[in-house]
Write a structure and sequence with these properties.
single chain; VC0802-like; Rossmann fold; 2 domains; 9-stranded mixed β-sheet; 16 strands; elongated
Length: 392
């Protein structure tokens, strides 16, 4: 008998012939998460198991944050052939409980002499005989003692809920337009949760945006790297582009034209590093540049697909997500970002694409050189496991 972690995964089960690829990736990510705790990780019969970890509770919490994991339980593993020993262990585990309970059994080994109902009945009777202060409640129990019969018998009470999603890196790579605000870090997290490996581009407009604003964005990327894996952050110098837009273009289209240049720069950097799509934190109707017409004008400037994970969220939902993933406090620091520079008093909310294109032509032949300089001048910072590993 030994203590283990029993790790369940969800959506990967739906995969067909390429399921082994997803399972290998998921097991590797769990192995990486468990490494600081000294755990041995293996995959067997529809479950991932971890043994030998130094702190099973902390290890369970860390593994539950791996994308693709449904839940994690601290469990006891023992030989299934000696069912009397299994019953004794269930009674000992239940001795730490108060109130109501039920037993839930799962028998993957169909050759086992007892079926699930018999296992539940016998285990429940042994628990009541040994712990008369407990009572059975099969509908709303305070505790659920679960028994799984696979190659071995595993017993556990309770579980740590996982974040779900798909294994990181199994669904391509995308470029996140990372501002210093609340929305874009959440969008990046949600894309990564679907198996997308993310890199990021931030637009820095010194001296209009300060070194503190830059440090804030690096910190947001660092927080994301704790769960989203290795992130390459490119900090692009955007001042010259913004200044020319302010000098040459009609004010009501200034924000839209700025957004179009951001998409162009992000797309060029994305293609350099092999990213297949862009990710933004836009939510439809939240601000003037996020109306349906404005988003269409923005998308017109690039050829890569644009993913907007927050498109149907309201602000309170986004804030709740930001708090849950740990980015809200940093995003709320009152440091400026480039989107607040040269903000028009009356931005166009229902722009016509042809008018925006005409206004953009006023930037002249200098635009291409400005875009190239912005891309080539981008500073690269690499973050991994919550640490800056290169570039600072």
């Amino acid at each position: 008998m030994r203590d283990i972690l029993l790790v369940r995964f969800g959506e990967v089960h739906l995969k067909g012939q390429n399921r082994p690829q997803f399972l290998r990736a998921l097991t590797d990510h769990v192995r990486h998460a468990a490494r600081p705790f000294g755990g041995h990780v293996w995959l067997n019969d529809g479950r991932i198991y971890i043994s030998g970890m130094r702190d099973s509770g902390a290890c369970a919490e860390r593994v539950a944050r791996v994308f693709g994991i449904h839940s994690v339980s601290q469990a006891v593993e023992m030989e299934k052939a000696d069912f009397e020993a299994v019953l004794g262990q269930t009674a000992r585990m239940a001795g730490e409980l108060t109130g109501s309970f039920k037993v839930k059994a799962r028998r993957s080994d169909k050759n086992y002499p007892l079926d699930s109902q018999e296992i539940c009945r016998l285990a429940g009777r042994r628990i009541l005989d040994t712990n008369p202060g407990l009572r059975v409640d099969v509908k709303q129990p305070e505790h659920v003692l679960e028994i799984e019969i696979r190659d071995m018998a595993t017993l556990h009470i309770g579980r740590v809920e996982g974040v779900g999603g798909m294994p990181m890196g199994t669904n391509g790579k995308a470029c996140l337009l990372l501002s210093g605000g609340i929305d874009s870090p959440v969008a990046g997290y949600m894309a990564a949760r679907r198996g997308v490996r993310i890199m990021a581009v931030h637009f820095h407009s010194f001296p209009y945006t300060s070194e503190r604003a830059r440090a804030k964005v690096v910190e947001l990327a660092r927080i994301l790297s704790e769960t989203c894996g290795r992130i390459e952050l490119y900090i692009a110098p955007f001042t010259d582009i913004q200044t020319r837009i302010h000098q040459k273009c009609p004010g009501e289209y200034g924000t839209l034209i700025m957004r179009r240049q951001m998409m162009r720069v992000a797309e060029r950097i994305a293609r350099r590093v092999g990213a297949q799509a862009l990710v933004t934190g836009e939510s439809i109707g939240q601000v003037a540049s996020q109306t349906m017409e404005a988003l269409g004008c923005t998308d017109d400037a690039c050829s890569l697909s644009v993913f907007r994970p927050l498109i149907g969220f309201d602000k309170s939902e986004i804030i709740s997500r930001a708090e849950a993933i740990g980015t809200f406090a940093t995003s709320s620091l009152p440091y400026e970002d480039c989107c607040t520079v040269f903000t028009p008093r009356h931005p166009a909310t229902h722009p016509r694409l042809e008018r925006v294109r005409e206004a953009e032509l006023l930037l002249g032949d200098a635009l291409e050189a400005l875009l190239a300089a912005c891309v080539d001048g981008a500073e690269r910072v690499v973050l991994y496991d919550g640490t800056v590993v290169d570039g600072e």
